[in-house]
Specification:
By secondary structure, the chain is an alpha/beta fold. It has two domains: 200 residues, 3-Layer(aba) Sandwich (Rossmann fold); 100 residues, no CATH class. The chain contains 13 helices and eight strands. The protein is globular, with a radius of gyration of 19 Å.
Amino acid sequence: MSEARRQLYPTIQPYRTGQFDVGDGHVLYFELCGNPDGKPVIFLHGGPGSGCNPSHRRLFDPDRYNVLLFDQRGCGRSSPLGSLEANTTHHLVADVERLRRMVGFERAMLFGGSWGSTLALAYAQAHPARVTDMILRGVFTGRRAEFDWYYRDGASRLFPDEWERFLEPLSEAARGDPIAAYRPLLLDPDRNVRARAARAWTDWEARTVSMRALHDMAGGFGASDHAIAFARIENHFFVHDLWLEEGQLVRDAGRLAGIPGIIVQGRYDVVTPPVTAWDLHRAWSGSELQIVEDAGHAFSEPGILDRLILATDRFALHNEGSVSPERSVGS
């Protein structure tokens, strides 16, 4: 019989929470969970624009990890909600470094999925000496081909019905570049216009993110202030190509030399197809790529979650990133 898949650790509460002023008018919510003397890890949420939730705390053994979670600029419990001012990848990399110093982590593991993997790579390439090891899921690096697949021609061929709904708020003339076309709608002074655009934007993600579409999330996510903030911030980053050079994060993967990493990737991930994880793995000599054969993009899918918990358990046994994962691929 096959071994039972791992599940989230039991619900825990933070032992410390706070608001941290990072300048530029932004104040970030942060929390520390687990064992204050445990292995430091910085959790980087997805989006950009979403925020952390209590389930994220449960990816780590609370007896062995000291987990820093925070809501990025304009997200979740950080303020001002939805702000696009001084909100770029470079600002967020600087925020991770400020928070690391503030909580007293000399070095830390990075854990990030989707956009969180992007931010983890950007931070680790800027500050490699501060990173012990990394766990990434559903890798996204912001290359033009990645944007085109999901917002032009690719995922649309697998989900033509959902794609049609995604395009509904846009004029026929604007549908050739949906990312650019959504921007004025998400910035419109009329909240009803912003809410309708945000609903369509978030529904497209919710209904393609998993092997089973998250219709309930999409249906309830449409017009809230947090949904509008999510869509505005994500679109803002995508319009500006994440403020990264084309192919930068794969090109500069050599800066990760000496940092062990586990990349968990769903075989049927429609949001961030496996080719990006494969390209990163080949460029990053210290990485191990694990392709999960029965999963898509969402961290909550059983196969993905199992691998993530196994990865955090595995790295918890090693201090200062001394483990060296094998270069392997498979289910």
